C-alpha cells in the first residue's frame, strides 16, 4: 500500500500543470511515508528512491526537486557518532555519510552535479534575450535563475560536508569556470565566491592537495577590478590556507605569522591594494600589513632587511605612476596634446594607495616598539602647541598638593608619566609606580603611547 502511495505522490509531483507549492507538499508527504515506514527493508527502500532521483538528475530533467528529495531522504539517515570507526560497521545500520559515499561511488554524484551546473549555465548563456534581473529569469517555469544556482551549490556543499568527501580539481574547475569566469549575472560570481569561501573554512572541503594549484591557476587569474567583498573573502581564505600548507604561514596562538617572504599570491594582493575597488582596498592593505608585521622567529631577526624590501616594493609600484604623471604634465603644457584626465586620476590613486600601504606598515612597526624612541618619528619630531598640566598628588597620610607641569601636544602620556614620577621621587624616593587620572578616569598604561594632542585635553588640565 505504501509503495503505491509513494508512486502516486511521485507522479503527482511530476505533473507540469501542478503548482510548485502543491508539488512541494506531495514531496514532503513522500518523505514522511519513507520516514515512518515500518517495512523491514525501509533503508533499501529509501536508497531505491534516491537512485530514482539521481536518474532524474542524470537526464537533466526535474533537477531541483530531485536534489531536494535526495537531500531530504539522506537526512532520514542518522549521522555517525563522533567515535564511530569503520571497523565497527554494523551491516544493518546505515549512517548518512555512508549513504552519500555509496552514491558518490555508484553515480559520481559530485561530478554529475558539477556537470549539471555547467549545462544549466550554458543554457542561460545561449538565450537570445537576457533580462537584467536574474530573479526574473525562470527557465523551467518554477525556479528563478538565482534559485537554480544557489540550490545546486547548496546541494553540492551538503554532499561534501555530510558525506565527508573532498571536492577534487576537475569538479572545482568546472564550477569556477561556470560561475566566476563565465558568469552571466554578477550574482553568479558572487555565489561562486561565497561558496568557495565556505569550502575553505575551518573544516576545509576542497582537497588540500589541489588547493594550491587551484589558487594559482584560477583564483589569482580573476581581474582585481571584479573582486567584491565576497571575492576578497574568498581570496583571503585561499591565501592563508595555501600558504599555511606550504609552510609559509605558521599558526601561532590563534594567529598566523609569516615564515617565508615569498608568499603565494602576495603580488596579486599588492595589485588588489593598488587597483581594487574602494570597497575592498582597505581590507587588502590590512592583509598586507598583517602579513609583513606578524613575523616568525626566523624572519624577525632580519626585520631591517624586510623594511628595506617593503620600501623597495613601494618604490617599484610608485615609479610607473610617477612617470605617467610626468608625461601627462608635459602633454598638458604642450598645446598640441591634451592631457588624459582618467590616466592622471588612475596614476594619482595608485600613488596614494601605495603610500597608504607604506604608512600603515610603518605605523604598525612603530606601535610594536614598546620603548620610548631616541630618534622620534617624523610626526613627533617637533614641539606641538604648549599646554600646562595641573598635577594633583594624592598620598596616604599627606595633604593633596598641586603643581604645574609644562608639556606640549606632541608629547606622549608615557613621557608625562615619567616626568611626574621624577618630580614625586624628590619627595617620595621609594615611589616606583604612579596611577594617572583625568577627571576621575584612570589612564591605562596601554594608552601611554598616545600623544597628548590625541587625548583632547584642555589647555590647562
Detailed description of the structure:
The chain is mainly alpha-helical. It has 17 helices and six strands. Helix 3 (42-58) runs antiparallel to helix 4 and helix 6 packs parallel to helix 8 (169-181). The protein is elongated, with a radius of gyration of 32 Å. This is Probable ubiquitin carboxyl-terminal hydrolase FAF-X. Residues 384-459 form the UBP24/USP9X/USP9Y ubiquitin-like domain. Residues 1-243 form the UBP34/UBP24/USP9X/USP9Y-like ARM repeat region domain.
Strand order of the largest sheet: 1-2
As for the number of domains, it is 3
Topology order in helix (H) and strand (E) letters: HHHHHHHHHHHEEHHHHHEEHEE
Question: How much strand?
Answer: 5-15%
- The number of helical segments is 17
Broad shape: elongated
The unreliable regions are none
Structural class: mainly alpha
Oligomer: single chain
Number of strands: 6
Computed CA radius of gyration, to the nearest angstrom: 32 Å
N-end to C-end Cα span:
89 Å
The residue fraction in helices comes out at: 55-70%
Mean pLDDT: 88
How is the biggest beta sheet arranged? 2 strands, antiparallel
Explain briefly what this protein structure is:
This is Probable ubiquitin carboxyl-terminal hydrolase FAF-X. The protein has 461 residues and is mainly alpha-helical.
Task: Chart the SSEs and their pairings.
Layout: H1 2-14, H2 20-35, H3 42-58, H4 63-74, H5 96-107, H6 109-125, H7 145-162, H8 169-181, H9 186-199, H10 208-217, H11 229-245, E1 249-252, E2 255-258, H12 266-275, H13 278-293, H14 297-300, H15 303-333, H16 341-368, E3 386-393, E4 401-408, H17 413-425, E5 436-438, E6 441-443
Helix pairs in contact: 1-2, 2-4, 3-4, 4-7, 6-7, 6-8, 7-9, 8-9, 9-11, 10-11, 12-13, 13-16, 15-16
